[in-house]
């Protein structure tokens, strides 16, 4: 059963990655961080979150918030593949006639809240979790943070408060792809030992391979990890996952590829030769 | 009634209301046992309070957040702008000890740019009650509105008898006069009212306008005053930049109304920390001192 489920998830993740690659031209997108959380999003939407395209405003639903924000192409791709928005709509990327831009916003069905400024959505998620609890709902709030985002003090402040208020319906997921915008986290503002930090702030923590569906099932199958504590899943991931030509490269955070490069990258996704990329490195920060 | 009692009554009639604080309970000390889980104290964490308030508002709640005005509006400004302002959520912000009311705390506690920065946020309402009567009259209307709102908290006893019911975008004209108009808001109305008596005793007629809601502004009242009186004086415990003087100037320029305007505000300075009465006299904001400044301008 799990083998066929894994295959279906891998196929979904591949289609989402195709969307991400197609969004990386004509203005471009934040490709590296999108590819690192693709497997995670595919898995959560297929197997964990109690939500469907018909129930995006149902008060009785699970919430997923994307706090790091610039990984939104992975979410657009997932929402398009699962029927929350039409696939064709992604062609409106960066057009003024739609609202599909570099950061999430609520004009897109399925997107719960906007982000872009780092360090905000853990507190917003805590507010949602607080209300769910007041209404005795069994539903949960999942919030995906970037590891670079953990530089922001507001993340830790919010976690202190969430722990103090015993929000065990809150699940924090760290896309631990080991990069901030332009540099490895451990070279700039080291985060390790990360699990111990979260535990010290009152959360209960697991650490897994964020590209393994087996590992993801293990981590999300037993929530909450401890009664009265927020759960934290540190998902070790690879920035640029799925495209060896850009994996783990500091200079492939935000990209704007040519049409030819996109064609090569799509072939590379399907196991063909590595793409030859000549577009300039873009430093937007 | 008190602010706390009024708020509790509103909470009883509207289960959407959630009372929040960043460990500033001065005005709401009795509410925790009465409200149970609808009272949320996040500790000294203004940013988290605002983010959580946005999350609660997304779920249909109407959070009312309490903190000292400086920390609320400055530390948490980006959260207010981004998490409350952009989605236009009905989060209510109550800033304690604004302006001169922070008396001896020192410049860290002087919220004297709060109106200037918050009014930049689209659709943010700003209410500056002149006393507790006005505060309590405004509260039900503030809580009913679907817009975000900043309240410059002031529960001083009233110095004037209010004649007009509270309404957003409506200033209260407390006296009519054509020689000079005094525009003010908040607790300074008390000093302005005293100033009016002194100025009138010198034979001038004085219009006093209580600008309860600097945003939305009662443009009509401002334009009428500027057209009908020979001098318009703006008196506020705020930096000269960004507050009511700026607001009035923008309106007059936009409508092409030219007239004599005298601002009395804090120009490029924080005020001297001391007990409130001493702050007022040191900074020249007692009724007597205000009257002399106005009389000098009237010649």
Describe the protein's architecture and organization.
The complex is a heterodimer of chains A (285) and B (299). Chain A is 36% helix and 12% strand. Chain A has one domain: Rossmann fold (3-Layer(aba) Sandwich). With 285 residues, chain A is an alpha/beta fold. Chain A is globular, with a radius of gyration of 18 Å. In chain A, strands 2-3-4-6-5 form a five-stranded parallel β-sheet, with helices on both faces. Chain A has ten helices and seven strands. Chain B is globular, with a radius of gyration of 19 Å. Chain B folds into two domains: 150 residues, Thiamin diphosphate (ThDP)-binding fold, Pyr/PP domains (Rossmann fold); 127 residues, Rossmann fold (3-Layer(aba) Sandwich), CATH 3.40.50. Chain B is built from twelve helices and eleven strands. A six-stranded parallel β-sheet of chain B has the order 2-1-3-4-6-5, with helices on both faces. The mean pLDDT of chain B is 98. In chain B, strand 8, helix 8 and strand 9 form a beta-alpha-beta unit. Chain B has 299 residues and is of the alpha/beta class. The chains are: A alpha/beta (285), B alpha/beta (299). At the A-B interface, helix 5 and helix 6 of A face helix 3 and helix 5 of B.
């Amino acid at each position: 059963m799990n083998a066929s489920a894994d295959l279906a998830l891998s196929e979904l993740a591949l289609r989402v990655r195709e969307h991400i690659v197609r969004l990386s031209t004509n203005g471009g997108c934040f490709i590296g961080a999108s590819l690192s959380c693709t497997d995670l999003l595919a898995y959560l939407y297929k197997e964990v979150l109690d939500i469907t395209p018909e129930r995006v405003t149902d008060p009785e639903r699970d919430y997923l918030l994307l706090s790091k924000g610039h990984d939104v192409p992975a979410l657009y791709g997932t929402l398009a593949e699962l029927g929350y928005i039409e696939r064709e709509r992604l062609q409106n990327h960066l057009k003024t006639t739609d609202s599909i831009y570099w950061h999430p916003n609520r004009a897109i069905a399925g997107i719960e809240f906007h982000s872009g400024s780092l360090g905000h959505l853990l507190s917003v998620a805590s507010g949602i979790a607080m209300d769910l609890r007041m209404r005795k709902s069994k539903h949960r709030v999942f919030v995906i943070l970037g590891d670079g985002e953990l530089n922001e003090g507001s993340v830790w402040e919010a976690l202190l408060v969430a722990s103090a208020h015993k929000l065990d319906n809150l699940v924090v997921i760290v896309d631990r792809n080991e990069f901030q915008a332009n540099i490895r986290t451990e070279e700039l503002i080291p985060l390790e030992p990360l699990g111990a930090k979260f535990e010290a702030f009152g959360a209960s923590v697991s650490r897994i391979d964020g590209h393994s569906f087996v590992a993801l099932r293990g981590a999300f199958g037993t929530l909450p990890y401890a009664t009265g504590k927020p759960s934290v899943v540190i998902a070790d991931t690879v920035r640029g996952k799925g495209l060896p030509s850009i994996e783990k490269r500091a200079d492939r955070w935000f990209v704007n590829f040519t049409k030819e490069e996109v064609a090569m990258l799509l072939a590379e996704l399907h196991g063909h030769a590595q793409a030859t990329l000549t577009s300039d490195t873009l430093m937007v920060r | 009634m008190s602010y706390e009692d009024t708020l509790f009554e509103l909470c009883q009639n509207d289960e959407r209301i959630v009372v929040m604080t960043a460990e500033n309970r001065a005005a709401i000390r009795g509410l925790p046992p009465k409200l149970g889980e609808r009272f949320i104290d996040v500790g000294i964490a203004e940013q988290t309070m605002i983010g959580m308030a946005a999350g609660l508002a997304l779920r249909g709640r109407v959070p009312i957040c309490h903190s000292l005005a400086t920390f609320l509006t400055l530390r948490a400004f980006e959260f207010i702008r981004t998490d409350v302002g952009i989605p236009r959520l009905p989060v209510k912000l109550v800033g304690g000890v604004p302006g001169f009311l922070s008396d001896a705390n020192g410049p860290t506690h002087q919220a004297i740019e709060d109106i200037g920065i918050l009014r930049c946020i689209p659709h943010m309402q700003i209410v500056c009650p002149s006393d507790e009567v006005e505060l309590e009259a405004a509260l039900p209307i503030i809580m009913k509105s679907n817009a975000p709102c900043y309240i410059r908290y002031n529960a001083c006893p009233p110095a004037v008898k209010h004649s007009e019911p509270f309404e957003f975008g409506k200033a209260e004209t407390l006296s009519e006069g054509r020689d000079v108009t005094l525009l003010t808001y908040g607790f300074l109305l008390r000093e302005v009212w005293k100033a009016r008596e002194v100025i009138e005793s010198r034979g001038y007629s004085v219009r006093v306008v209580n600008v309860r809601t600097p945003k939305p502004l009662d443009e009509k009242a401002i334009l009428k005053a500027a057209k009908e009186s020979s001098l318009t004086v703006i008196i506020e415990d705020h930096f000269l930049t960004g507050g009511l003087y700026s607001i009035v100037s923008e309106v007059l320029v936009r409508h092409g109304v030219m007239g004599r305007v005298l601002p009395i505000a804090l120009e490029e300075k924080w005020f001297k920390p001391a007990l409130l009465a001493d702050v007022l006299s040191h900074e020249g904001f007692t009724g007597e001192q205000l009257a002399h400044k106005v009389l000098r301008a009237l010649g």
